[in-house]
Model the fold of this input.
Amino acid sequence: MARAQKIIKVVFDKNMNVILRTDPVFSFLFPEIVTLTSFNTFLAKNKMLDENFLTKLNIGGKEHHVCYKCIDLEETFEFEFFLLDDEWMIANPTGRHDIHDQLTNVLTQRSLVALLDHEIKSSMRDKDNCTAIIIDIAYLKDINETFGYLAGDTIIKTVATLLQESSRGADSLGRYQGDKFILMLHKTDMAGSIHFIKKFEEVLLTRSFHFSDINFNIKVDYGISSIHQDDTVDTLIHRLHTKLEDSKKTSTTQMQYFS
Done:
């Protein structure tokens, strides 16, 4: 039996005819939709004007049955999209890849790389300031070896949740590797990225990390880079790792935990 899974939500301003909020995945999957008018054109073209009607779309090279729900509010239209598929949403034929990481519910590395490529090209085309931050949870290997991988997973999930809560809907957040995340800050310059890190550090200081009877003080390292005009995903990620390693060399904070 096919199973439904909500994948994206987009909110339009009725009066301004623009997108107010959206999941970054929406812009990646449907780059032609930038206004409410273009969204209605998309629905009409694909015979989806009736929200109860299932239509078949080719998304990411794979056919899916798609339906949506519209919430008509006083000043906005909110749309929630659902995919119905016998396998997993936007997956390769083996079903090994998914948009969202199962542990943290942020983007997988595969989806993140695709969105970074989309964001870099959009930044170059529109001449917008965009910056990326790589976030590395320090000493996670030591925590895993001392307390077990469940403790490490708890910390990874908590950091991911805090990053999601601290970022905006237009920003792209993904789990790049086990203990590393990459956050693309949309239309944000270097000063804005530094401000984000300072605010996030304040959040970390006020949040306790618990596992069993152990409380952890978590340290996070960062690497920041703006988007260059000749960038590719590979050059951007390489530069982020270089900045991250530079940051680690100047840091002397040690892992702390107490029962």
The domain at 109-258 is CATH 3.30.70.270 (Alpha-Beta Plaits). The first strand starts at residue 3 and ends at 13.
